[in-house]
Prior knowledge:
The protein is mainly alpha-helical. Helix content is 71%, strand content 0%. The longest helix has 20 residues, at 8-27.
Amino acid sequence: MAFYDLDKNDRTALVNQMQDNMLTASHLANKDPFLFYFADEDTYIRKSAYLIAGRIYQTHADLRDTIIDFLSDLLSSENEKVRQTLVNAAGEIGKTDFDRIESFMENGLFDTHPIVRNAVIGSLKKMGEKNPKPVLAFALRFLHHPDKEIRREICHGIELRGRTHPEDILPLLKELQFDKTSRARNTLVHVIGQISYKKGCLKTVLIEIGKWENRPLVEKAVMEILDVHKRYAKFSHYSTKEAHGFMLENAPWTVELFNRQLLGDRS
């Protein structure tokens, strides 16, 4: 029976049982329950497992080396779900101790399976929000990697930090403005939009991208910013119309774009 086919009380009981099993196994240095849950076909079982692994690490200092050893052992698993879940577990640990799991993130970046690489993106997002300094330093290492997918993953992975502190990631994003692949540039434009719509972020984004040299890309970013304000109207600090007006008032360089009707009737 799937996780969400159970009622709330049964789900709670299952998670508690998983935690008891994984904690006992950690004390016994037995990774088998970790492998069992990490390989489960149910996404929510795997999610519970990686959250539990992170929680054991955070609350039991004497078991931290054991948890890291378990994750190291599971790196060689042929099951992509196991590798995906260990990356997500490492992401929980990296919210506080990035240096302990950096190698797992690097391995995940180059994994052959997309669900593992996507787990790296998700982990970078949650770690970057809580523990930005080492995560952004890690991102900088791969920002100009020859593989376009690595560059795209890194760009996407630093997004969440930018939603609250766009000034932290904009210098890194700038490095990608002349990327030769449309896939990486499109992700860059997407991320610029995503870091623009929360309170206090739009002005910071506009000031920075106003200095960038790749004007066609900047124009696409402006369109994306307005689209984001439209798509996320319930969550945006400004309405689309207010964002348009804010641009004209605070980023005079956008006036020419609007006068050329670059954005059509998006305002």
